[in-house]
Amino acid sequence: MPRILPGLRGRAARAIRAAAEPAGEKGTFTPRASFTYPPSVPSWYIGHMHRAMRSLPALLSRSPPPLVLEVRDARLPLTSINPQFETVLQEAPKAQDRVRVAPGRRLPGWRARRLVVYAKRDLVDRRIEAPLCDALEAHGQDVLFAETRRKSDVQRIYDWVCERAKLLGQEVARAASRAGRLYRPSRVSGAARYTPTPETGIRLLIVGMPNVGKSSLLNALRFVGTGKKGAASTHPHPGHTRKVTGTVRITPAPPSLNELELEGQSVDMKALVAQQARQAPAVYVYDTPGIMVPYFGPEDQHGPERALKLAVAGCMKQTLFDPEVLVDYLLYRMNQRHAHAPHDAPLPPYTTLMPTPFLTDDVAEYLRSVADRAPGARQRGGELNLSVAAEYVLEQFRRGALGNRELDLELDEGRPGTLAEQIRARVDAAVAPAHPAAADEAPR
């Protein structure tokens, strides 16, 4: 896998501070004001995604209804929203039934059982978190940011799951006697029809677009809850999970009577039952395939730009896009940020990959410079492979080596208003109109 050469950061930083090239001086460089998007972009809504989407209504029809973790990519806080999930959640059985989540506070079932998790928190500026949470909460979405390798972040999600599982636990006993009555196998596609599931406990669905971190979150929740290692396979390329997995328990199992007797403990059955009643019910997780939107929309609705963002972030199949076009888009966005930065600001992060850093809006010129250091880009005879150099740049962006990786909110690009106002405006334009808070939270 490509990696940054040892010592590159230090040399590049010194070169940036020196700003030796006249072309690298901000006063002599004017970036392009717009980007020419391809007139059409390929879709990537393939068979296993369609089958998984078709299975979600039946999985949401289980009794009691499952909890849902919708995972999004923090680098694409708006583009990684799949509107299909919102539709399926709000049309599921009991979606509008009020659920008591706190004294005097009841929410519609679809909201009480759903938590939005923005994964890859470490790859974005922390300044966006609070304003984005507030803006999405106004639209009925409860949000947490998380880095799945950080236990404290995963613990917050695990605590939310256990708390909401307790609220639904009172339905478990009633559901056990009629388990599967609302579950219609004929409406579930493929392997999901034969996925074994326990008859008791709370189910948890993890949904989201491809490669946003769903399987990593499942493994992290299981480790926090049980101390056991990962149960779901992960891969850096999108589309790795291709079917609804069997259920994985993420809460600790109570000791059996045999285990207690072997430990020499006297078993007080009444106390044991009372103790288990106080604990959160067992929670079993389904890991679902990443589901892409079927159609990105026309150019006047920013469809091609959405597709490019997803491809840059690694959420789309890489062979569908020319890597040089993706790097050209990154070049455009980073130059826009630099154009509105203070005059004495350092050069954009993309210049750290160049032997002699300088500002440029020419992707071919940039990739020829990067190819001097990109592993495998210089071929026999001295010829430069710009596609290999472009893949190297994208890899560095995805691993976090090129500064702020957030691509949706267009912050620090000359937009008017405060940070919170800019984020609220972007969210309001991207998300359906909010439900009135008073109606959502009115006690009943």
From TrEMBL:
The record places domain G at: 204-308
Q: Which UniProt keywords apply?
A: GTP-binding, Nucleotide-binding
Gene3D superfamilies recorded: 1.10.1580.10, P-loop containing nucleotide triphosphate hydrolases
**Signal sequence segment:** none
InterPro entries assigned to the protein according to its UniProt record, in alphabetical order = GTP-bd, GTP-bd_ortho_bundle_sf, P-loop_NTPase
Q: Which GO terms describe its cellular component?
A: mitochondrion
- Coiled coil spans: none
Q: Name one GO molecular function term.
A: GTPase activity
Q: Which domain of life is it from?
A: Eukaryota
SUPFAM superfamilies in alphabetical order:
P-loop containing nucleoside triphosphate hydrolases
Q: Which Pfam families match?
A: MMR_HSR1
Q: Which GO terms describe its biological process?
A: mitochondrial translation
User: What is the name of this protein?
Assistant: Mitochondrial GTPase 1
Q: Which organism is it from?
A: Malassezia obtusa
